[in-house]
Design goal:
Blueprint lengths: L16 H20 L3 H13 L1 H14 L16 H13 L10 E6 L7 E6 L2 H13 L11 H7 L8 H17 L9
Length: 192
């Protein structure tokens, strides 16, 4: 199985999307299975493989630039990728910058509140590269809502803002795990 694919020239129209999505799905299933078996070194290894995966990059760029409702919305840099050539360039840049990317500032726009349309609330719109990198990392988290393989320390730092999570979920899961970490002689901030 060649998850990272060829390093040659990429042609957006020639990508086998079914194969790319299958590669990503299989990697996510392997992450889920390793997490269920509590094989944490294997989970981390597979997550790193997912982040390096060319298929994951291609599927994430396709999601952001073709499928999402905000695909025509530009960030602070004014860039959108609406043509196959532009999508190819974004995919190449995302894959090349996967380990060195630093997020950029978001564009602030004010939109009406749902409860009171007379009032406005701020909305941050990230640049397209940030959205692609976020989509790549979301797929690394594993299958299911919120991902099954978040380490306890990540949960403590991330809080209840994760999809499908609320404060009671966080507290119920976090207390025994933090106690187990503290009792094992490891300080906070260290992984499982």
């Amino acid at each position: 199985m060649t998850v990272n694919g060829p390093e040659g020239v990429l042609e957006w129209g020639a990508v086998d999307w079914r194969a790319c999505e299958g590669d990503v799905r299989r990697l996510r299933q392997r992450i889920f299975k390793a997490a269920r078996e509590q094989d944490w070194p294997k989970v981390r290894s597979l997550q790193k493989l997912m982040l390096r995966s060319r298929s994951n990059t291609l599927v994430s760029v396709r999601q952001v630039t073709q499928r999402n409702a905000g695909r025509k919305t530009a960030g602070i840099d004014g860039e959108v990728a609406l043509t196959p050539g532009a999508r190819t360039q974004v995919a190449v840049r995302v894959h090349q910058s996967r380990s060195s990317w630093r997020p950029r500032a978001v564009r602030r726009v004010h939109i009406p509140k749902a409860a009171n349309p007379a009032k406005l609330r701020p909305l941050g719109i990230p640049v397209i590269m940030d959205r692609c990198h976020q989509a790549r990392v979301r797929k690394r988290a594993g299958a299911g809502v919120g991902g099954p393989v978040r380490t306890p320390i990540v949960w403590v730092q991330a809080g209840p803002g994760q999809p499908g999570r609320d404060r009671s979920d966080l507290q119920r899961v976090q207390r025994p795990l933090v106690k187990a970490h503290m009792g094992a002689g490891r300080g906070p901030g260290r992984g499982v």
